[in-house]
UniProtKB/TrEMBL annotation, chain A:
<dbReference type="InterPro" id="IPR003439">
    <property type="entry name" value="ABC_transporter-like_ATP-bd"/>
</dbReference>
<dbReference type="GO" id="GO:0016887">
    <property type="term" value="F:ATP hydrolysis activity"/>
</dbReference>
<dbReference type="Pfam" id="PF00005">
    <property type="entry name" value="ABC_tran"/>
</dbReference>
<dbReference type="GO" id="GO:0015807">
    <property type="term" value="P:L-amino acid transport"/>
</dbReference>
<keyword id="KW-0067">ATP-binding</keyword>
<dbReference type="InterPro" id="IPR003593">
    <property type="entry name" value="AAA+_ATPase"/>
</dbReference>
<comment type="similarity">
    <text>Belongs to the ABC transporter superfamily.</text>
</comment>
<dbReference type="GO" id="GO:0015658">
    <property type="term" value="F:branched-chain amino acid transmembrane transporter activity"/>
</dbReference>
<feature type="domain" description="ABC transporter">
    <location>
        <begin position="3"/>
        <end position="234"/>
    </location>
</feature>
Automatic annotation (TrEMBL), chain B:
<keyword id="KW-0029">Amino-acid transport</keyword>
<dbReference type="GO" id="GO:0005886">
    <property type="term" value="C:plasma membrane"/>
</dbReference>
<keyword id="KW-0813">Transport</keyword>
<dbReference type="GO" id="GO:0006865">
    <property type="term" value="P:amino acid transport"/>
</dbReference>
<feature type="transmembrane region" description="Helical">
    <location>
        <begin position="238"/>
        <end position="257"/>
    </location>
</feature>
<feature type="transmembrane region" description="Helical">
    <location>
        <begin position="89"/>
        <end position="108"/>
    </location>
</feature>
<feature type="transmembrane region" description="Helical">
    <location>
        <begin position="60"/>
        <end position="82"/>
    </location>
</feature>
<keyword id="KW-1003">Cell membrane</keyword>
<feature type="transmembrane region" description="Helical">
    <location>
        <begin position="188"/>
        <end position="208"/>
    </location>
</feature>
């Protein structure tokens, strides 16, 4: 399976924020979209996920163009999102957050899927009956990832995982992401923290000013000046 | 003591009717951030369909028609009108609901006349005597049916399947991206609010007599009840309405029947000033 974003433009009202984005990803690889704050990464992602309707272009996944479809259709066809800022359902318990995600895509074996997610993040098992809104930031991040995983997606899209997370926690979460890729999942990471993203991914795209500046293997990218600037945080 | 019990009965009856409207406000508001002031007019329309139009049909058929039309009007007005205005400015949609209420009012006035119409209760004229307290079959039906509807809704929302609705209430965009069909759930909630409003109209008509103008009052008092409990939560909006019904009955019984309406709005102003989140609500969650 393959995600192919072709010539995607996304905007709000008459202003187009992102123009002509092309990127692709095969299941079984981790690809990152990096770039400075305001580069248009989140808007690109919103366009891919259908949260903002693209003004033009295609979002082909497994042969179907989702660009003009409602956002929910992507989850049903195997794309799961871990949103920026986690966005767990605060008034629901940890268990309900997971269960609602399985049911949303019509998933079977609800109990087994939740168990598997809790094996991956044992902390969530301890917190199962607690309201998600009362979890710590790191626990909420785990829940957001677990909530995507119980949908048994083929493609996991992770938006700004590192924002607001203690380094020790994103080490842990990063480890989980590596495991998922070796299990055959496709992972698309949108990250401001280029160093973190490139340590987890095999290929990447650099975005700036609403356009993709360059793309390639992480190895190739790390030799580019533009990336080096971002990598080392130089302005 | 007898008077107190009698007033509690009266308060529960009116409070339940307010609660049916308030539930509509609360489910729509939590799902979309929209406040539908046409719910009162929808209740009035429900009353006319059940008691005035189609006099040849059996009563139960007219009630079914009233409920079905209630759901359709509610869903239709969202998809054809409010939704589009709400995308640009929620306030425009809210004002539009007032306008639609007036349109309903005028349509009924022109087709059925502007005079009050007596509506005989479908539950007959039986009055039960429980000690010194008397309760009519109609009053009993109002309290029982409303209690069943409220309990049913709260249980449904609390269930495993209802978790999808609660997820949408808490974060609609994330719910959608996780694969929950939020547009469809919203449609269902509009249908529920429409049915509840029609039930309120069917219950209110025999108590108040039907008139095209009863809608505005129901809309506003139901809104006060919802605000009193907290608009963002269904259970508290219902509880707030019942408290309001009781307050109104006690005030009418012990202080002044003439000023009962003034009391309702005084409560409204006080709540907004002192506890905008509602007396029973926790945090004011204002969605734009």
């Amino acid at each position: 399976m393959r995600l192919e974003v072709e010539n995607l433009s996304v905007g709000y009202g008459d202003v187009s924020v992102v123009r002509g984005v092309d990127l692709h990803l095969e299941v079984g690889e981790a690809v990152c979209l990096v770039g400075p704050n305001g580069a248009g990464k989140t808007t690109t992602l919103r366009g891919i996920m259908g949260l903002t309707k693209p003004t033009s272009g295609a979002v082909r996944w497994d042969g179907t163009d989702h660009a003009s479809k409602a956002a929910w259709s992507r989850a049903h066809s195997g794309i799961a999102l871990v949103p920026e800022g986690r966005h767990v359902f605060g008034p629901l318990t940890v268990g309900e957050n997971l269960e609602v995600a399985v049911r949303a895509v019509g998933g079977k074996r609800i109990g087994a899927r939740i168990d598997a997610a809790m094996d991956r993040f044992p902390r969530l098992r301890e917190r199962r009956g607690q309201l998600a809104g009362l979890l710590s930031g790191g626990e909420q991040q785990m829940l957001a990832i677990a909530r995507a995983l119980v949908q048994e997606p083929r493609l996991l899209v992770i938006d700004e995982m590192s924002l607001g997370l203690a380094p020790v926690i994103y080490e842990q979460v990063g480890e989980a992401v590596r495991g998922l890729v070796s299990d055959g999942l496709g992972v698309l990471m949108v990250e401001q923290n280029a160093a973190l993203a490139m340590s987890l991914c095999s290929r990447g795209y650099l975005m700036s000013g609403g356009e993709i500046l360059l793309g390639g293997t992480v190895e190739e990218m790390s030799h580019e000046d533009a990336v080096a600037h971002l990598y080392f945080g130089a302005v | 003591m007898d008077k107190l019990l009698q007033l509690i009965v009266a308060g529960l009856v009116t409070g339940s009717i307010y609660g049916l409207i308030a539930t509509g406000y609360a489910v729509i508001y939590t799902a979309t951030g929209f406040v539908n002031f046409a719910l009162g007019a929808q209740a009035m329309l429900g009353g006319y369909l059940a008691y005035v139009y189609f006099p040849g049909l059996p009563q139960w058929v007219r009630i079914v028609v009233s409920l079905v039309v209630g759901a359709l009007v509610s869903v239709g007005s969202w998809h054809l009108l409010y939704k589009w205005a709400a995308k640009r400015a929620m306030l425009a949609a809210v004002i539009m609901s007032f306008a639609l209420a007036i349109v309903f009012e005028e349509i009924i006035r022109l087709s059925a006349g502007g005079v009050n119409v007596a509506a005989p209760s479908p539950f007959g004229r039986t009055v039960f005597q429980l000690g010194a307290v008397s309760i009519s079959a109609h009053q009993l039906a109002v309290v029982v049916v409303s209690a069943v509807l409220f309990t049913g809704l709260v249980l449904m929302l609390g269930s495993k399947r209802g978790a999808a609705v609660r997820a949408m209430f808490s974060d609609a965009e994330t719910a959608e991206v996780l694969g929950i069909r939020t547009a469809r759930l919203t449609t269902i909630l509009f249908a529920v609010s429409g049915v509840f409003a029609a039930v309120a109209g069917i219950f209110a008509a025999p108590l108040l007599t039907l008139s095209p103008y009863m809608g505005l009052n129901l809309a506003l008092i139901g809104f006060v009840g919802a605000i009193l409990g907290g608009l963002g939560r269904i259970g508290t909006a219902i509880a707030g309405s019942i408290v309001l019904g009781l307050l109104e009955a006690f005030f009418a019984g012990y202080v002044s029947a003439d000023f009962r309406t003034a009391l309702v709005y005084a409560v409204f102003v006080l709540v907004l000033v002192i506890r905008p989140a509602g007396l029973l609500g926790r945090v004011a969650k204002v969605k734009v």
